[in-house]
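Comment thread on ticket #2218

A.B. wrote:
> Attaching the input chain for the structure job we discussed in standup.
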Amino acid sequence: MRSLLPTLLLTALLVCGKAVAEVQLSFDRSAFGGPALPIWSELDDFERWAVSRIPAARDGDADALLALYLLSSGEPLPLADFFELRDELDEWIAGIPLSDGSQPDADAHRLFVAMHSRYLGTDLASNDTPVMYREEQSQLSRLFSTGEFNCISSAMLYVVAARKLQLPVDGVVLPSHAFVQLRLPGGTVEVETTSFTGFDVPHDEAFYSSEYSDWFSARSLAPPTYEDYLDRDIVSPYELGIFNMINQHTAEAEMPYRDRMRLAELRGYYRPWDESAQKSRLAYYYQEYVHLRENGDFDTALRMYQQLENYLVDLGERRFEDEEIPVLLTAVQAQMADTLGRTGDEDAGLALARHLLQTREFPDTARTVESHLFSVVSRYAVDRAERADYPGARLAFNALEFQCLKNKVCNSGLAQVYSAWAMHYVEDRDWERSADVYREYLLLDSSSKLSQHFTTNLERVYLNWAAHEEWNGQWETAMGLLNQCTQLLDTASECETALAKLDAKR
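C.D. wrote:
> Ran it. Output below, let me know if you need it in another format.
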């Protein structure tokens, strides 16, 4: 058993350290965002029934665990087929010669032998490595349909059967392997479910020494060490099912994107404290937006964020040791702000973008996220300016000016607003107000390439303003304006020339 946890980069999804091929994302999402759980993926009848039985699975109910394990397989399953499998297991167990419960140790072993004979295709005469063993086959659903299994899929089958006998059982997880632990009157019994001789195998130093390495190698497993065993995770039957939602069968080459996303969401929902689970869940939401944006489907993106809004808010209130999670969360929320702005709720999109810019940190690895947020702010402001709501446009940048001037996207938007604002007054020949607007921008930005255009335009405003005053016979006022121009601007050669000519005329 080898767990495969996708690692998120904001530009690609990686599995096992290798970039995967472009995934197929085009499918019908009209039924996504249903009421069963606060997740985006659609759940079918069986999946909704299975999640309704999660509380019972936590309590160790055998049928609820069977449903959870089949849910974690990620494959479509008609609800009627689940009940057929349940009845089949009940009938099989009823045919095993068991005690009346007075011999739990013997019953646990008889159950183990019967499982190998009935489902795993092995017996005493079999090779130690069963013929149907497949290192990558971690789905209980496929064990039932094909007979193929690995350590965790066979462990889950045994756990379900043991719970049907009310036996106390747990899963044991190592870095490359999983097995079962029974807590019986005779003591703790560890069960290697992939071997017919694996019942009550002592996991001591000798078992993990070199002479036993062939046992793992024959199963395509990286041989664990005794130290790995001492550091093992003993998990409840319920946790074993949640763990299996991110395993070999969820690799990109093994499972469609849609099914992998559903399992990642479920795992993240049921393990809210698990940092790797939240990163994986957020990664899919990030990818969903990218796909929907490329197809111009912002209405569907809006439905997704409406479904996930509380989750994203709650996640933002948690503290995580992994520094990538806040960055990824902010990236997803930036996408949400962008979507709100594109679907008619510009004020909400602006408010979210401003909140994130004012409360989140943006290390060098998150500059693209910061730019995305500033693009939301800038688009809002430019739109207001196009409607001649210049004060409203200016307010979009309020208290963000220092950050804004460092960001090309935002500085460009800020300059567009001020330029349109000033030109509005220029067209009305309101030279005083246009000069005020140009001066206000230059108080914010006096050194960038954009500021050079404002300097040039401000000088032209003074020239026109002075010419207007001269035409009206207000020579002293005109000269005062030209003097103000030369004093305010570092380079104002045209104002200096006009002032000299006016002084000569006077």
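A.B. wrote:
> Thanks. Noting for the ticket: Residues 2-22 have pLDDT under 50 and may be disordered.
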